[in-house]
Amino acid sequence: MNAEIISVGTELLLGQVVNTDTTIVARELSALGINLLYSAVVGDNVDRLKLAVETAISRSDLLIMTGGLGPTTDDLTKETTAACAGKKLVLHQESLERIQNYFNEKHVSENQAKQAWLPEGCTVFRNDNGTAPGCAFQAETGCTIIMLPGPPSELEPMLKNCAVPYLKQGQEWVIVSHNVHIYGKGEAPVAQMMDDLMNGENPTLAPYAKEGECYLRVTAKAHTEEEADKMCQPLIEEIKKRLGDFVYSVDVETLEELVVQKLAQQGKKLATAESCTGGLLAKRITDVPGSSAVFDMGCVTYANEAKEALIFVPHEILEQHGAVSEETARAMAQGIVKRSGSHIGVGITGIAGPDGGTPEKPVGLIYIALSDGEQTWVTKRSPIGRTKSREWHRHCAASQALDMVRRYLDGLPVIAEK
Fold it and tell me: pLDDT digits over 41-57, tens only?
């Protein structure tokens, strides 16, 4: 099946809002084994939208529309797409009642009510996170059209809970994918290690880069989900065998999610003391639901005086070795354990740039320490020989700190062997 995506909205076209809809939909299509051939952004203009839809339904098996289903006058997706597909709009009473209940009004405005007018004979997708329902129907050309709301908070659950099951109904084959996440080895060396495994047709193996890490996607096609999953497992085990403890998860998408899970499973708590990362490590941890059960506190101690007062870094260490040093990182990790009473403390100090570096301590030099109150481990991130952004250094330092916590909780060497 060949598909394309049209995202509707002048705000997307002008860059006023980042178009994450295409990314969200594309990932789901890939997981279903559907080929995405085209994607486009069209402003709130009937003529241009009509041309885009007519082109799409003439050449593709599946068209997914995002945005333009709301109550305002520039929400034109439904009317224009239905006309192109040869469908008239009819009132869907259940959707109207849901809109009325949403606003707690028996009679809603004409603009709000227009969201309940849908293509005749369509499959309706209820919106549990907003007012505009989605739907699926067939154009006269045979193309399947799915219309979804634009806000990601509405689109994503409707896509996963309604559109994906709808698409699976018509599939003879089932696609199953697993992502093997890797920290500590880059995409190129990982791909080289897996070179002989990447020629398979079913299952397939493909490498992908993430910020400061990478993952391998294992995908299999079979008549049932259980059969496809079973086909993936030997390849996943071979990857884990070759990469060892550089594999941090299968299908847990981020290091922070994994760390929060493992802390909860072991009944342990974590605290952080950060300088150059400015609280990024604490933010990533607390972005994970349930982190309040495992995260005690985080201190951003930029100034030396804050390091001394809040996390007990000795004045003599700062004077003799400086704020960016192995000794200071060690003292920060130990100090935050003492301050918080947590099982594990992490300290990060370094020079994220773009300024502040010296020949002795260049931009990109970062020390990361982990302490459990008895033992302390310190690793050093050195500049990699080319200019990287401040954001990159900070992100990668936080990732390495999370990987150290992951390793500690798994009983592995806290400092990975290269």
Answer: 999 999 999 999 999 99
Residue 290 gets the label, from left (phi > 0), alpha (psi -120 to 50) or beta, of left
DSSP-assigned letters across all residues of 47-59:
HHHHHHHHHHHHH
268: left (phi over 0), alpha (psi -120 to 50) or beta: beta
3-state secondary structure of 334: helix
Query: Are the C-beta atoms of residues 255 and 281 closer than 8 Å to each other?
Result: no
Q: What distances in angstroms separate CA 400 from CA 116, 133, 212, 216, 312, one per listed residue?
A: 49, 43, 9, 19, 24
Spatial CB neighbours of 356, under 8 Å, sequence gap ≥ 6: 363
Whether the Cβ atoms of residue 141 and residue 58 lie closer than 8 Å to each other: yes
* DSSP result, 263-305: HHHHT--EEEEESTTTTHHHHHHHTSTTGGGTEEEEEE--SHH
Length of the chain: 418
Q: For residue 166, what are the contacts with CB-CB under 8 A and spacing of at least 6?
A: 123, 125, 136, 146
What are residue 134's phi and psi, to 5 degrees?
A: -105, 180
**Amino acid at position 394, single letter:** R
3-state SS, one letter per residue, for 180-239? EEECCCCHHHHHHHCHHHCCCCCCEEEEEEECCEEEEEEEEEECCHHHHHHHHHHHHHHH
How far separated are the first and last CA of the chain, in Å rounded? Answer: 43
Mutual angle of helices 77-84 and 46-59, in 10-degree steps? 50
Beta-carbon count within 10 A of 168 CB: 12
- pTM, rounded to two decimals: 0.80
Residues of the chain with pLDDT under 50: none
- Whose structure tokens read 């549990």? 128
**How does pLDDT run across 367-413, given as a tens digit for each residue?**
999 999 999 999 999 987 667 899 999 999 999 999 999 999 999 99
